[in-house]
Amino acid sequence: MRNFRTLIIIFLLCCSATLQKVPYGQNLIVLLIDGLGRSLLNQSDIELFGFRHVTENGARAEYLKPTYPTQSYPNWMSLFSGLYAENHGFTADYMWDVKSEIGFHRGEHPNDTAQVWWSDRPAPLWYTAGKANIDVHCYWIAGCHMPYVDMIVQVPLARKYNASIGEQTESLPTHFPEVVERIAKYQAYKQQLFLIRYAGVENTLRLFGSNSDEGRQAISRSDLYVHDLQQKLEERGLFESTNLVVISGHGLRSVDSEEQFYIEECLADFSKITKIVNSHSMMMVFTDPDELDEVFFELKVCDQWAPMGDYDEGDNPLVSVYRTSELPEKFHWKSSRFMPGIIIMTRPGATVLTRELPSIPAGDEHARDIRQTGGWDNDNVEMRGVFMARGPAFKTNHESLPINMVDVYQVLLNILGVEPPHRHNGSWANVEDLLSSGWESRTSPDSISSSTSTARSFLCLILLCMLSY
């Protein structure tokens, strides 16, 4: 009788062990921190425990080169598609469609959900992952709640991107317990993908600058959040199956108050301008086609930003005026949608504004008060972003050479075990040094789960046979 009871107990224990499945595959958390420039991590007066903990236990790139223009939307969409702006369709934070005569206002206007902006775009990361039967969870990710072909990611209202609510991402740490719990509870059945954005750093630096007390506190706060998330994952032993990627699309640079210009000072007739789109570091100038040459000439020879004094010809000019067709190829931008006939670019620190012309965003007296912004040449040191990651996919305490924003997309899909659905602009050679040894030849999730379950069942059978004799 005792042997029979023993057999029953062993049988139940074996069944329980068999039912405790290993994680179905690798999980992925992408934490996008807006405005966290690479140079900010070198500030000696800020102790950054969270970021350091990621790099000591993982890998990082020397820096991340953003997509041009170094604004939010172009880089967000490059991250989620692996494409330059001229290929993914989001030309800038603010756009103007000449045909429909509507503008895109960075997610702050009802027109921003119009199909003209969102149709004919490449499949975003969340769609590709969702179609691969991966659970997708978005937190303040622009466009994630928008339908794409035959799928919609269900995003609760509190987690939907809303640019008009600047502080909406400040609840970030309150969501960490649900992130960790969901991975722990469901990873045996489905891979989990979390796309999370934090805007607190960029919002603060734009208003106060990185050298202000407010700026330093914002950077420290983001570091604390990264530390908190890691701690919660470690407590549940989830770094064996979960990869954490911390990334920023671009950095910010201080605005030089002595080098601020108004485009109106260059124009004889304001009526020749139909729309001004974007400001500060870059400006799109829309004109009637018949007026383009005259407006271009006026801007090109404008006295207010002409070289003065002991100007060195080797220096970058304060302001450069281009016909769109003549933009430098290195930006991968001139063939983008919604482009004007004329583009104005400023030297990092210099800005160009409007106060009377029809513009997106609308010009106002507060435009001069901004402390820091992005949008400048993506080769500029202060525009560089951050890439760091830890988890099974990545080497430990390792720094690679610089990577590009368009390189990251393929890494995220590779971690999830999903093939890119379209050709992209990233290079695998740029990122493979970040990955742990043998990562590319790892076994598929299905075979791991199946072999583990089979092994457990076989061991139980042997035990039962031994005890029955």
TrEMBL record:
Keywords, in A-Z order: Signal
Gene3D superfamilies per record: Alkaline Phosphatase, subunit A
InterPro entries: Alkaline_phosphatase_core_sf (IPR017850), Phosphodiest/P_Trfase (IPR002591)
Extent of the signal sequence: 1-19
Protein name: Ectonucleotide pyrophosphatase/phosphodiesterase family member 6
Organism whose genome encodes this protein: Toxocara canis
